[in-house]
Amino acid sequence: MLLNSKDHILFIGDSVTDVGRDRMNAADLGQGYPLMIATALKEQYAELELTFSNRGVGGDKLNDMADRWEVDCLSLNPTVVSILIGINDTWHTVGQDQFGSQENLLQFEQQYRTLLTSLVESSVRQISLMEPFVLPYPTDREMWRSDLDPRIQVVRKLAYEFQADLIPLDGLMNANGIKQGFALLTGEDGVHPTKKGHELIARIWLDTIEND
Predict the structure, then answer these.
(1) Maximum Cα–Cα distance for the chain, whole Å?
(2) pTM above 0.85, yes or no
(3) SS3 for 82?
(4) Distances (CA, A) of 103 to 13, 123, 150, 176
(5) How far apart are CA 176 and CA 199, in angstroms?
(6) 95 in helix, strand or coil?
(7) Are 204 and 167 in contact, with CB atoms under 8 Å apart?
């Protein structure tokens, strides 16, 4: 990604993006990977006067994010949008009929495509799609793969379709977890990153963008 002067970079998604941001302070980036990325880019590209926003909301599924899309995304007029969504679409349907259903997956793809189309129509210059991920600790997370893996494939398909940057979090987070220990990266639930996990996500994001 070639950053431009005065680019406004928006991070939007669920709790993995939220990370305790102050909702009363529109400029607050939380304590996770958005803050780490912003800090690195501001230092590296001080002459560009980059600005950043975080609109992650804990617990959001894709349709929740879609409901606030106009206010939390389009109205901010970002030039670069980075999206991480999908793990709650899996997590919140475990044990329900929707889990792993083709109909649910199709709805996910259609709604995601609608949001991305709105970005193109709003002249957003660059889109980054981050894969939702889960690590196999605790071990019951392994059964989530049957629902999550097809969603990851949708994200990859849409990244190709919209010429977006694909941030391959699932494979790289799992690969690092195998080496370092899964709990080091996502604590006790396989989903919510620790500080080390957020540092890895930020590095993956920056490495992917810089190699684009």
Answers:
(1) 52
(2) yes
(3) strand
(4) 22, 31, 12, 33
(5) 12
(6) coil
(7) yes
Report the residue count for the chain: 212
Query: What is the chain's pLDDT, residue by residue, as a tens digit (212 residues)?
Result: 789 999 999 999 999 999 999 999 999 999 999 999 999 999 999 999 999 999 999 999 999 999 999 999 999 999 999 999 999 999 999 999 999 999 999 999 999 999 999 999 999 999 999 999 999 999 999 999 999 999 999 999 999 999 999 999 999 999 999 999 999 999 999 999 999 999 999 999 999 988 76
Q: DSSP letters along 17-37, please?
A: HHTT--TT-TT---SSHHHHH
In which residue are the tokens 């901010």 written?
76
Alpha carbons within 13 A on the beta-carbon side of 195: 1
